[in-house]
Design brief:
alpha/beta; Rossmann fold; 2 domains; seven-stranded parallel β-sheet; six-stranded parallel β-sheet
């Protein structure tokens, strides 16, 4: 069985790349097809992979500014030649599920989300600060991309969703069923500390608008409680301006430092609306409770009252109330870590590997010219 992995783009690190790295571990002989690959901007370990790009990789300034090329991605994805492969695994948050396949190939899509800026364009435009002229120009383009994206979904044999939130979107936008297999989290990297927790709350994130770090800064400023903010992004200056004296910004956080911060925090704050959310699982792996907005992937990963506390509205007041409620709730670090282990790398490999084998056997029964080696 010849396997190909398809990924949207390789010019930045995020949750999608964490999934990709695990897929490469599972299928080390499989080439990785992608639209663009910024060799110098990605980890050096990627250079040992067989990475194959499209003609879009030669576009000017695309590694740093890939959004203006948005309308070209479907065409670039469709130019990828996969005729030599039996099994195609697409790792999708954009357009890579639209690769051309035929009835002799099995296509399994690991769906991080239906293309967000296509199906939730209004929020995307507001977040990116589109002016009226840009909005007028983009509206008809978005309509065409929605039509393409919906047709592209018909070429997928089986969808796998990363959370209940994404499963619902697949049903709504693509009118397709899906199986939930949670993304891999390196839970072995983090451990509970035998020492009592410190008094600080913790946020680690890219500092960009939709992450809603402003809620944590305002709530902790209002309550006068310590908050450490890790990460960088275009919102940092604005967040520092609104922060009170109990808020400390520490910039980018290395792996070792992150483990120490997580293990000793009073609680981890997760104020955004995410499709899944890796950091709340990492915090729980370190035995610490999570204060999360009750929406999206947090509903899959955090157990209210057992491994954390939910707040219902994305307001500083609602978050401040949850912070106060946390004080009167007892949490068991060992039980919190046990919950995190539901999302381990080993569990992901087993669940996805079993799913792929089962679907391949079904596929082979339909066409006995295929067989599982």
């Amino acid at each position: 069985m010849k396997v190909a992995i398809v990924h949207d783009w390789l010019n930045q690190l995020g949750g999608a790349e964490g999934v990709l790295e695990t897929l490469v571990e599972m299928f080390p002989e499989a080439p990785v097809f992608t639209t663009i690959y910024w060799r110098r901007g990605m980890p050096t370990r990627y250079q040992s992979w067989d990475i194959r790009t499209t003609w879009l990789d030669r576009a000017p300034f695309i590694y740093r500014y890939h959004q203006p090329y948005l309308p070209l991605y479907p065409t670039a994805v469709q130019s990828i030649d996969l005729r030599a492969y039996d099994l195609i695994i697409s790792n999708k948050s954009g357009f890579c599920h639209g690769v051309a396949t035929d009835s002799q190939q099995l296509h399994i899509d690991y769906c991080l989300t239906p293309t967000r800026y296509v199906w939730d364009y209004a929020s995307y435009a507001a977040r990116e600060g589109f002016g009226r002229a840009a909005d007028i120009l983009m509206r008809p383009i978005i309509g065409r991309l929605q039509s393409w994206d919906r047709r592209a979904a018909d070429g997928v044999d089986h969808f796998v969703a990363i959370s209940r939130e994404v499963q619902a979107r697949i049903a709504r936008f693509y009118e397709r069923d899906s199986t939930i297999i949670y993304p891999p989290v390196d839970t072995d990297r983090y451990r509970p500390s035998p020492d009592p927790p410190s008094d600080y709350f913790l946020v680690v994130s890219r500092l960009i608008p939709y992450k809603r770090i402003d809620l944590a800064v305002r709530a902790c400023t209002e309550l006068g409680v310590p908050l450490i903010v890790g990460g960088e992004g275009r919102d940092r200056a604005a967040l520092e301006d609104m922060a009170g004296p109990t808020i400390r910004f520490v910039g980018r956080v290395g792996d070792d430092e992150l483990g120490d911060l997580l293990a000793h925090c009073r609680a981890f704050i997760f104020p955004g609306y995410e499709d899944f959310g890796i950091t709340p699982v990492e915090a729980q792996a370190a035995g610490r409770p999570v204060i999360a907005y009750a929406a999206g992937g947090a509903l899959d990963t955090v157990i209210d009252g057992e491994t954390g506390v939910f707040f219902q509205e994305q307001t500083p007041e609602s978050l401040a109330d949850a912070i106060c409620r946390l004080d009167s709730t007892g949490f068991d670090p060992i039980a919190i870590r046990q919950n995190a282990e539901r999302f381990s790398v080993a569990r992901f490999k087993w669940e996805l590997g079993t799913f792929i084998q089962d679907k391949w056997r079904e596929f082979a029964e339909v066409d006995d010219s295929h067989y599982l080696t």
